[in-house]
């Protein structure tokens, strides 16, 4: 299972627990703020905001909380001064890791993220140290029971996607970043529900890791994902099926 896809599935399953802890709402709120800040507060003309709202509703965020987050992004309320930062580094076994950060205080966030890397035996690196190992792509996840693979492939390719691949119990639609709007709109028009849509970073190549390293990497990824200012995490690890089976039996 490849780095981003594998972690995306784990993170999706974690979201139910995170929601109970309030962590998911924090991340969803920041996504709303940034989307509104970038493209305005009208979801009819700001597709990124529309899908951020869809994700927020899927996370059971109350309507008034969604509206407050949007107003923070447009400047109508205070609290929308978020900065987007990309932190790069290496995890156990030399795994390359990228963290997309939404923060209102770099001086607080940077040392906290650095400590997570160091505790795991990794190291936070300089700007550009691993970003070249990843491609920025649109990634849309669709449950397998919502549409057949051939039908999804035809729909996605016509909308400008590059590929559709299988990852666990979902299909992943991959496209260039500038195709995000057309791909998402095509799925919406065809009444195909999604389990998440984002512009993210996908590794060009992956490195296989064994069970001991896999445990350490997944522990670090979980700690990063649990940090309030970390919006998303990508990495270039691959856990072979036999190692996954060993972890599951442990």
Overview of the molecule:
It is found in: Cytoplasm. One of its GO terms (cellular component) is cytosol. This is Probable transcriptional regulatory protein I41_46050. Keywords: Cytoplasm, DNA-binding, Transcription, Transcription regulation. There is one protein chain. This protein is an alpha+beta fold. The protein has three domains: 3-74, Integrase, N-terminal zinc-binding domain (Arc Repressor Mutant, subunit A, Orthogonal Bundle); 83-125 and 205-237, YebC, transcriptional regulation domain (Alpha-Beta Plaits, 2-Layer Sandwich), CATH 3.30.70.980; 133-203, Alpha-Beta Plaits (2-Layer Sandwich), CATH 3.30.70.980. It contains nine helices and ten strands. A four-stranded antiparallel β-sheet has the order 3-1-2-9. Strands 5-6-4-7 form a four-stranded antiparallel β-sheet, sandwiched between helices. It is globular, with a radius of gyration of 18 Å.
Main sheet overview: 4 strands, antiparallel
Mean pLDDT: 87
State the CATH class of the largest domain: Alpha Beta
Radius of gyration: 18 Å
Structural shape: globular
Helical content, roughly?
Answer: 40-55%
Strand content: 15-25%
Which terms would index this structure?
250 residues, alpha+beta, Arc Repressor Mutant, subunit A, Alpha-Beta Plaits, 3 domains, 4-stranded antiparallel β-sheet, Transcrip_reg_TACO1-like
List the helices and strands and how they pair.
Blueprint (H helix, E strand, L loop, with lengths): L2 H19 L1 H17 L7 H12 L4 H12 L8 E8 L5 E8 L2 H14 L3 E2 L9 E10 L5 H10 L4 E5 L2 E6 L4 H10 L7 E7 L3 E2 L2 H16 L3 E6 L1 E2 L2 H9 L1
Parallel strand pairs: 8-10
Antiparallel strand pairs: 1-2, 1-3, 2-9, 4-6, 4-7, 5-6
């Amino acid at each position: 299972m490849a780095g981003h896809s594998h972690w995306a599935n784990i993170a999706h399953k974690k979201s139910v627990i995170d929601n109970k802890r309030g962590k998911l709402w924090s991340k969803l709120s920041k996504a709303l703020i940034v989307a509104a800040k970038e493209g305005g507060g009208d979801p009819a003309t700001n597709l990124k905001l529309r899908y951020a709202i869809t994700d927020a509703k899927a996370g059971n965020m109350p309507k008034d909380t969604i509206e407050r987050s949007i107003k923070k992004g447009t400047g109508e309320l205070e609290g929308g001064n978020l900065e987007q930062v990309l932190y790069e580094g290496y995890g156990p076994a030399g795994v390359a890791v990228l963290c997309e950060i939404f923060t209102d205080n770099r001086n607080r966030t940077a040392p906290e993220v650095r400590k997570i890397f160091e505790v795991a035996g990794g190291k936070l690196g300089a700007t550009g140290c691993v970003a070249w190992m990843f491609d920025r792509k649109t990634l849309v996840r669709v449950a397998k029971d919502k549409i057949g693979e051939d039908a999804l492939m035809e729909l996605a390719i016509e909308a400008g996607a590059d590929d559709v691949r299988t990852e666990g119990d979902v299909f992943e639609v991959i496209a260039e970043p500038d195709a995000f709007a057309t791909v998402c709109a095509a799925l919406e028009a065809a009444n195909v529900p999604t389990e998440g849509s984002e512009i993210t970073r996908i590794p060009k190549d992956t490195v296989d890791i064994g069970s001991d390293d896999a445990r350490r990497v997944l522990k670090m990824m979980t700690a990063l994902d649990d940090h309030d200012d970390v919006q998303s995490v990508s990495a270039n690890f691959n856990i072979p099926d036999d190692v996954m089976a060993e972890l599951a039996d442990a």
